[in-house]
Amino acid sequence: FQFILEDTDAHREDHHCWAYPFQDGPTLGVLAAAVKAKRVLELGTALGYTACWFAHGSDIANVDTIEKDPEHLRLARANIAISGFTSRINVHSGLFTSVLPVLAPGYDIAFFDGYSPTLNDLNMLKIMLRPGGLLITANLGLDNETKPYIQDLCNSNRWLTSFMAEKGRTAVSVRR
Questions:
Q1: Cα–Cα distances in Å, from 136 out to 10, 39, 87, 108, 165?
Q2: 26-34 long-range contacts, Cβ below 8 Å, gap at least 24?
Q3: Nearest to 4 by CA among 20, 17, 15, 18
Q4: N or C: which end of the chain has fewer CB within 10 A?
Q5: What letter does residue 166 receive in the DSSP assignment?
Q6: What is the pTM of this model?
Q7: CA 103 to CA 141: how far, in whole Å?
Q8: Residue 163's closest CA among 20, 146, 176?
Q9: pLDDT surpassing 80 at residue 108
Q10: What is the pLDDT of residues 44-57, one digit of tens each?
Q11: What is the pLDDT of residue 23?
Q12: In the sheet where 107-112 sits, what is the strand order?
C-alpha cells in the first residue's frame, strides 16, 4: 500500500491539511493477524492506508473507519477499491462523536489516528472494544489534551499498556 502512503503525503502538500498517515502500516497488519481480528474500528481514515493494512492483516476482518473530510472520504474510498477491500472496509462520513453511537460495540481492535486523542475519545473507544480487545493510539503527546488520556491508559485496572512506537507517541493497550 506504498502508493497510498505516497499519495497521502502528496495530497497533504496540495490540500494543506493534517492527513499524516501512521507510518508503520505493516505493524497494524501484524497486530490484526495476531489477534485474528474480525472487527476493527478506526478513528481517522485519511486516505485509507491503515484501513487497508488492517484488512490485509486479517483476511476475516471487517473494518469500520470514520473520516469527516469530504475529499479524504472520496480519495480513501477510491484507494480502498483499488486495493480490493471495498467489501470489507466501510468508510463512515462524519465526526467520531456522531458516528460511534450508531455502531455496535464488540470490536477486536480500535485504532485512534485522529489529530490528538482526548479522554472523551478514550471513554468512547473503551465502550466500543470488547473486553480483551486491543486499542492502538497514535498521536500521544501532540498537545496537553492527551495528558488525561495517557494517565487513564496507565490505569492498570482498566488497561494493560505499552508505549511502544514513535518514541512513545503510540500506545498499544489491552482492555481489561
A1: 26, 14, 24, 11, 10
A2: 26/53, 27/165, 28/53, 28/54, 28/57, 28/111, 28/136, 29/53, 29/54, 29/56, 29/57, 29/58, 30/57, 31/57, 31/109, 31/134, 31/136, 31/172, 32/57, 32/58, 32/61, 32/109, 33/57, 33/58
A3: 20
A4: C
A5: G
A6: 0.95
A7: 28
A8: 146
A9: yes
A10: 999 999 999 999 99
A11: 84
A12: 89-93, 62-67, 39-43, 107-112, 129-137, 170-175, 159-165
Query: Residues 65-74: pLDDT tens digits?
Result: 999 999 999 9
Place of cell 493510539: 137
- Strongest mean pLDDT among 7-16, 78-87, 107-116, 135-144: 78-87
Element (H, E) at 167: none
Taking the C-alpha atoms of residue 86 and residue 89, their distance in angstroms, rounded to an integer, is 6
CA distances from 83 to 48, 53, 96 (A): 10, 10, 25
Give the bridge partners for 160, in sequence order: 174
C-alpha span between 128 and 102 (Å, rounded)? 11
CA distance 159 to 13: 37
pLDDT surpasses 80 at 165 = no
Q: CA 47 to CA 5: how far, in whole Å?
A: 8
Q: What is the pLDDT of residue 167?
A: 77
Pairing of strands 170-175, 129-137: antiparallel
Nearest residue to 90 via CA among 123, 129, 116, 61: 61
Residue type, 109: I
For 137, the grid coordinates are 493510539
